[in-house]
């Protein structure tokens, strides 16, 4: 549908109909206007899969892709585009027209709960990956929604905090990926952040929404609020927020109509936003295919292969004294140790969660590759959970149409495991807002001894074992960190149980007055010193010890930041014990952010595998055994200690405000300027082969303002294996009128090279690559004078450099300055 037809349709609509388009009708859809044949639009989370409209737990199955930090670690924009295309197919299979992704907030603090869901600390890398992702998604006719605009770098008090960011940091860092998403990838949707920016909620910040996004950058798509992040009627509308999500409307609908009638909102503003919604409907082809599509779980072989490849390519080899890749012909017995060895950590927590088609554990991945040729030993060693491991038992459910478990119960569908979120009527005739439930199962322990039971709920809950109340999360229920801060913290109880005996476990639940409705039961045997000892003994008895440590989606999750930067529980102790028992110890880390590695000197190898999606174990096995190259490079600096992180001292804020006091000097910019050696620098990652860099050639030594500089060099694979090098280009402004970072990433290319092969790499730099944002002039300025081009394998491993001069100042107006160059 062209613009003219959109306008014709718009003009045929009554004011009421136009207003009805500006708020969700349900949690995931907009309202149709049947009179005019305008269908509803359906959106779906999220960055690493398309969940569809169902529950966060146990919904329709979906393909689970590598999380954002893993994708960015590939530095492979073509691969990211392929992932975007596959995600669009996934969205289609869920009947969704718009994917609520990508998340492009920057890695400012290492403690951010959503670090895993964001690409990088560097705006240029984030921009390149985000553009590639959006182009992939939108090439399939599905809309992308770049989020969260802007300043959502932490989950601490995210619904109310004000991110106080000065203009230069905003323009040179935090806005850049959004700017690229709009100007280059032409994203069809943008989602506002929950937080305030400099004192005003992002969702009603006129400067951000109208002046910058729509006017300066020319955004012509739909700007939606984050879920429940609309706080006003007239203010948000006048600021430029097109769509309140989710529905039904809280601040729009009748209220918006009244605001228009009272002269608080102009009819033109309504029309402009309604036109944008119609344009989006047209872009995603819903006028041609208006019928809603039933959600399907399609497990495609080509998606499996893509996920496996991307997961492997995102792993970063942090240390290798020659032990990797493993040569199975020289190994008899391998120890697989650690809490993540037989648990597949495939994604982070929060709205990015999907119900994966399957999850391959590292143990399964290695077993599949090695067959019976090598003996695999296994020990857990210690735990790394935040909540007690889920009780994975089917439960029966009985529902009551009141909060007090009174009257006759209505049987509901059985539950596959002991976690449930209720979005719809739980059983016929039972109101989802005001019900209670009794869930029952039988639990037969494998071992004698003490067992811990845990209960988390959004709503009230209590747990009985053989009729005896063991966990009371009812009489003293308190709001905590779970379920997007709607749930309690975990309440626990301890009981001595006998192996082989069946116990009745009953959970009673009642809905809260409002918000999410959910309950989760965990159970475990405590792990103690003897488990660490058993792990060390196994390691001593094997040729190689692989230790799978890290976090999971309870630590790396939306809505909660991590309390520190260390591996949780006794994992550091476990690694040290194992490394003392076997010099060939390799640690496979799975975290969504940097962690401290106090045992680094003691181990032979470290591989950072992040959360690589449903093929996790296969991707990890591919890299460990050399079937795939670890060509990932860090998108975020690993500081030695938390205190070295740029945000330290300016995080998490207080009294409702967090000041980004480090300004421009975030990530490697901070480490460079303050001369603080990182543990692993930005851009770092080893390979199984080696590379040599030739000299740099610049297209000119004297660049005219407005011109483009071409940088050329040769890269050679000097090792015996095929491999991929990520050639990184940084720019240094030798002298500037305003403070600038020591150097900044402004180009990169991933090159695949056979042994002995040489390729020529060409990178170009435009004016934006040289410019800073002059907040006094409100313009981009590249100052005349000398610049240095630095090329290397990481921000601290630079192999070639050359200088050139910019002849005169270049000043780029806000509207014309290109996003990336
Ligand atoms: C998240 C968004 C997400 C939305 C819908 C919010 O809690 O911040 O990223 O798209 O929920 O699930």
TrEMBL record:
Belongs to the glycosyl hydrolase 3 family. Residues 390-537 form the PA14 domain. GO terms for biological process: glucan catabolic process. InterPro entries: Cellulose_deg_GH3, Fn3-like, GH, Glyco_hydro_3_AS, Glyco_hydro_3_C, Glyco_hydro_3_C_sf, Glyco_hydro_3_N, Glyco_hydro_3_N_sf. Transmembrane segments: none annotated. GO terms for molecular function: beta-glucosidase activity. Keywords: Glycosidase, Hydrolase. The keyword Cell membrane does not apply. SUPFAM superfamilies: (Trans)glycosidases (SSF51445), Beta-D-glucan exohydrolase, C-terminal domain (SSF52279). Gene3D superfamilies: Galactose-binding domain-like, Glycoside hydrolase family 3 C-terminal domain, Glycoside hydrolase, family 3, N-terminal domain, Immunoglobulins. This is Beta-glucosidase. The keyword Cytoplasm does not apply. SMART domains: Fn3_like (SM01217), PA14 (SM00758).
